[in-house]
Each structure stands twice: as structure tokens, then as C-alpha cells.
Design brief:
InterPro entries: Methyltransf_11 (IPR013216), SAM-dependent_MTases_sf (IPR029063). The chain has a single domain, classed as Vaccinia Virus protein VP39 (Rossmann fold). By secondary structure, it is α/β, with parallel strands linked by helices. The chain has a 7-stranded mixed beta sheet with strand order 3-2-1-4-5-7-6, with helices on both faces. The protein binds S-adenosylmethionine. S-adenosylmethionine binds next to helix 2, helix 3 and helix 5.
Length: 254
Amino acid sequence: MATQQPESPSQRRKRKRALRKLVEFKGMHGLSLNQYRQDVKQLYDGPKGAMLAMASLVSLHEPLVGLMFRERKFDATRFHKILDIGAGAGQILGHLVKRTNPTAELIGCDLSHQMLRRARTRLDSDRPNYVTADLTQLPFADDSFDCITCGWVIEHLHDPRPGLREFVRVLQPGGSMLLLATEDTVAGALTSRTWKCRTYNRRELNSMCEEVGLPWQEQLYFTKLHRFFKLGGILVEATKQAHVELAPPHVCQS
Ligand SMILES: C[S@@+](CC[C@H](N)C(=O)[O-])C[C@H]1O[C@@H](n2cnc3c(N)ncnc32)[C@H](O)[C@@H]1O
């Protein structure tokens, strides 16, 4: 009787890659940037957006991000003016309210005005200001912030570079960015289906951040378990280099 050979690590990797490709949301590819952006706005304005805060609690994302601030894996007490991009229901902003110097200025921005209304109600704090904006066209002057946080948002871009360049523009030289993104794992692909977005390959995202002048300083993990099982997604602290040649203003294609 033929015995079945155990799967080699490279076979396992191939099988997982194939499964991930099968599962991952592909709907954004057939759409123009504007059409896709409208879809994203509708998604978050609607009932799914209303469930976002609850989903972040159930998936433990929100408390785990809180742990990162509490344990100072990302020390937010250093900053004076922080922009939270794609603030959603205020999952990161809420931690910033608690873990920053009370005089630090906090701004939450999001494509969805409705999400920002939810964030304002949920946080019930007079500290953050809220601005409705697309992250590829931020209504802020160059070098405005010493910190940017952006959690699970750049997944909504076909190509993250126009967004990352805009982050570089509004960030002061030497300023920090906390970036969290869905990774190209099977779990990430399932998430991409729920939220109609893409996933990122860690190496590719690293090199795109380098390319725009936001080199990674440190890769972070919620817990040792997350690191071991490659769960939780890509979490990094990046810093804007002192001398970055700004790209010409980005013109969005429709
Ligand atoms: C998954 S939620 C993340 C919420 C929160 N940052 C967190 O850490 O859980 C993604 C948010 O990004 C916003 N978003 C998506 N595309 C955007 C864009 N191009 N510009 C600004 N915000 C965007 C959505 O409206 C939504 O509120």
C-alpha cells in the first residue's frame, strides 16, 4: 500500500499561497479609482461601517492596539500633533486620547463622514478634531504633524504609493508613522473579503515605504504568540527621512 509523503514546507507554502489567492477579494481591480472609492465610502457609511467598532472588539484588534500603546511598543507620549488617517470608529483615536500628552493635538480623518460621526459619539471627548478627507489628498500643509497613525486603511488602495507619499508630505522630517496593514495570509485574505480590500506582502510594502522616504524603523507584534503564528498583520513604525524629495501633487485618475 502506497504511503502518503508528508507535505514539505515549500509545498505547504504553495498550497497556502494558492488558497490565499483564491479567497482574496479581487473586486477592486475591475473598477476605476473613483468608482472603487465610492464603493468604499458606501460600505463604511452603511450597516457594515456601523458594525466596525463591534467587529474590532470581537476580533480583539482594538484592545491589542491599546496594549501596544500601553506597553509603549509605540510610545505616543513623544508627540505634539498626531493625525489618525482612516480613523473609522475611533479605534486608534480612543487610545491616543488616553496615551498621549493632554496638550497633544489629535486629528482624525476619514473618507466616510458617517464613520467620523460614529467616532465622535463613541469617544465622547472634546480632544480630537475630525476632518473628512481622502488620504491621497489630505487637506493639510506640508510638515504639519510629528506623528501619523494609520490602521487598516491602505488596504483600500490599489497602489499604496500615492497615499504613502501624501503621508510623507504632511509629516515633519524625523516624524513617525505607526502603520498597520492586513498581511497576505489566508486570514488576511478572509478579512479582505469582508472589507472589500486587498492584502500586503510584508517585503513589498517595506520596499514601497523605502521608495517614498518612509523607511521602517521597527516591525512590531501585538504579542509573542502573534509573532510566532504570523497573526495580527503588518505593524510597523516608520520614520520620515530628514531630506525627502516631495513628489509632484498627485492627480487622481477617474
Ligand atoms: C477598517 S477601517 C479602520 C478603522 C481604524 N483605523 C482601525 O484601526 O480600526 C478603514 C477606514 O478607512 C477609511 N478609508 C478607506 N479608504 C480611505 C481613503 N482613501 N481615505 C481616507 N479614509 C479611508 C474607511 O472609511 C474606514 O473608516
